[in-house]
Design goal:
By secondary structure, this protein is an alpha+beta fold. Helices cover about 15% and strands about 20% of the residues. Strands 1, 2, 3, 4, 5, 6 and 7 form a 7-stranded mixed sheet that branches.
Length: about 190
């Protein structure tokens, strides 16, 4: 902090007479924990209400397993496109909390169609249920089945490090990544 006070300056600039203002009286101010000073129900730690508002100031709207993610149905399977960026392992748990699983695809065409819908929300990477966490280079969906097709991007799987075991979808292709990397994620109903 002493060597880079400019990094802290935006937060300090919002203090009034050394105190953080709290216009809506909810006990949280805009400097650090309140993303909406006009609504006392919106602040860090608030319950996400599935109402189209970022109630808990996480940076993502309706990012609770209680909230339904936007969906698309392709080849008879519904895919839920959850835009809150979390690590792959948390995404797996989030889908399970909804009674679902991280996505499993049946074809390259299905993968491409789901990617097209996901890319309209976010063109970054999306966690899917493919991984080789049990045995290196033995990629399986979370239900233990092996893919019936291949959608690896050029140079993938890269096997850069032994702990790059989780797969993300980007540009209709699979990319092997570290399981702690964050991304949006795609859930499907358990087959």
């Amino acid at each position: 902090i002493l060597t880079s006070p400019d990094l802290l300056e935006p937060q300090i600039d919002c203090l009034v007479d050394g105190q953080e203002p709290d216009r809506d009286g909810d006990g949280y101010g805009p400097c650090f924990q309140d993303c909406n000073e006009d609504d006392p129900a919106v602040h860090f730690g608030a319950t996400e209400l599935c109402n189209g508002i970022d109630d808990d100031c996480s940076g993502f709207v309706d990012d609770s397993p209680d909230c339904e993610c936007p969906s698309v149905t392709v080849e008879g399977r519904t895919f839920y496109l959850c835009h809150n960026r979390i690590p792959w392992l948390e995404a797996r748990d989030y889908c399970e909390a909804q009674g679902r699983t991280l996505a499993r695809f049946e074809s390259e065409d299905q993968t491409a169609q789901v990617w097209a819908a996901a890319a309209e929300i976010d063109g970054g990477r999306w966690a899917i249920g493919l991984n080789d966490r049990e045995t290196e280079n033995d990629y399986r969906w979370l239900d233990g089945t092996t893919p019936g097709f291949d959608a690896w991007a050029d140079g993938q799987p890269a096997h850069q490090l032994d702990w790059f075991d989780c797969v993300f979808l980007r540009n209709s292709a699979w990319y092997e990544c570290n399981c702690i990397e964050k991304g949006s994620f795609i859930c499907t109903d358990v087959p």
